[in-house]
Write a structure and sequence with these properties.
Layout (H helix, E strand, L loop, with lengths): L11 H9 L11 H21 L7 H6 L1
Length: 66
Amino acid sequence: MDDLLDVPKEKQAFQEELLRGFPLIKARKLSPVKAERIRDMVEAIVEMKAIEAGKAEATFHECAAQ
């Protein structure tokens, strides 16, 4: 299972040390560019699910891309 964690900067050192303590968890750092791409994709997926559920409306730009 893959999880993406968004941890505040002041808590990152603690979180990294904590995860290293569990041998079954493999964690690796992402480059800032990859992290931004993943954040954008997650945001897009959340928005698409909201549109599909009728909780949000697609803008013309979003409809044109489909």
